[in-house]
C-alpha cells in the first residue's frame, strides 16, 4: 500500500509578517519665536548666515532661540570668528545652561532653493562638531526647503534625518524684529562686499578717463550718464 500523504501544516504555509522599519519618533522642533527669527535672519542678505540653536532644558531637540556670532559669509560659506564662539559659550555657561543646550545644533541658511548640504557644509560640520558626542546640522533654504541631520559621533556612530516641525504646544514670546536686525548687523559680514568694486563705463566717463584719448567714444557713452 502506498503511504497516506500527510496534510501540510497550515503553520508552514502561513507567511511570516514582514517587519516594518519604525519611523523615527524624534523631530527637530522650533518654537514659533525661533522659527520666525530664523526666517527673518535668512532674508536679510544675499549670503548664507549661520548660528547656534539654544534649546529647552528638557528637550534638546526643541530650539527656542537662534544666536548669531561674528562671522564672515559668502553665498556658499559661513566662517565663525573663533573668539566670538568662545565668548558665546562663556555667556551661555554663565547663564546656567549646559553645553548640550547651546553647542550641539548648528543652523545656517542657503540663498538658493536647495537645502542639501554642500561639500563645504560637510567639512565644516565634521571639523567643528565631530568631537561632540552628538550634533545636528540644520539648513533652511531661501525657497523654503529644510534639511536636518542628527549625527552620532560616539560608539558605532551613525546619523538620522529628522523631520522639522514648529511647536506651538508651549508658551512663546512675540517677534522682535528690531533686536533681530541689530543682531544681524552686529555679527554678519558679507565677504563679497569687502572686495574692490569693478569700475563700469559710467564711472570712467564721470572721472574724465576718456577725455585725454586721441579718439572719441561719444557713440558708446552710457545712456544714463
Number of DSSP helices?
7
Rg estimate, integer Å: 28 Å
Could you state the oligomeric state of the chains shown?
A: single chain
Task: Report the top-level CATH class.
Answer: Alpha Beta
Give the tally of structural domains: 1
Order of helices and strands: HEHEEEEHHEHEEEEHEH
Number of strands: 11
Instruction: Note poorly predicted spans.
Output: 11-25, 197-207, 209-225
Our estimate of the beta-strand percent is 15-25%
Task: Report the sheet with the most strands, covering strand number, pairing sense and barrel closure.
Answer: 8 strands, mixed
| CATH superfamily heading | Cytidine Deaminase, domain 2
- The average pLDDT is 82
For this structure, the CATH topology is Cytidine Deaminase, domain 2
Widest sheet, order of strands: 9-8-7-6-2-3-1-10
- CATH structural architecture: 3-Layer(aba) Sandwich
User: Which overall shape is indicated by the principal axes computed on the Cα atoms?
Assistant: globular
Secondary-structure class? alpha/beta
How would you describe this structure to a colleague?
With 225 residues, the protein is an alpha/beta fold. The protein is 27% helix and 25% strand. It contains seven helices and eleven strands. The strands form two sheets. An eight-stranded mixed sheet has the order 9-8-7-6-2-3-1-10. The protein is globular and about 45 Å long. It starts with 9 loop residues before the first helix and ends in a 19-residue tail after the last helix. The model is unreliable at 11-25, 197-207 and 209-225 (pLDDT under 50).
